[in-house]
What we know:
2 domains; 18% strand
Amino acid sequence: MSVLSLLGSSKAKMLHLLAAKPRTANYIASNLHMQPSAARKHLERLVKLGILGKEFRTASVGRPKKVYALSEKGREMFPRRYDTILNQLVERLAQVESSSYAESLMKMIGKEIAEKIDDHDLTRDQHASHVLTELNRLGFESSMKRNNKGLTVISRNCPLYKTALAHQEVICRGLHGELLKTSLGARTVKRSDWIITGDSYCSHEISS
């Protein structure tokens, strides 16, 4: 089930119309064969959810018109095939150069992403919590637990699953492994469980 479908049929259709360009409530109502007041109610609800923005635009004649437009959050609700594009890119890199070159490049990207996670001189535990927030923002659905050996990171989702399935260590060791290593200041990162091989999550033992 798509995220859009969870909003209901009417709101989903409105978002599809607004994906082309900002529209007025009257335009939406006319295209969806509903009363303007009902359309406005749906649109204002989407504004409150942060999915739409609104502004008044001056027309050539008459009063300024209120138009609704997709916000960044709204655009993120539409399906995007990043995995397909990335898969083609990694495959081409491996063909032109080598798999080890592709992995080195992914490792560099993982390191750069990690270095952008600015912790503002937080304590060790605060920093770990901050990194966890950023990992989840990227879509890893991660959790952390400390033990006497160090830190264990559990990732229950892989945002690049299809690409990882086709180019396993390029993504998993290269991108994900380096992201964890650099962001957590780890000396070593050891993977214990792996979604790619059928486990329900990926787990990494972090030692510093």
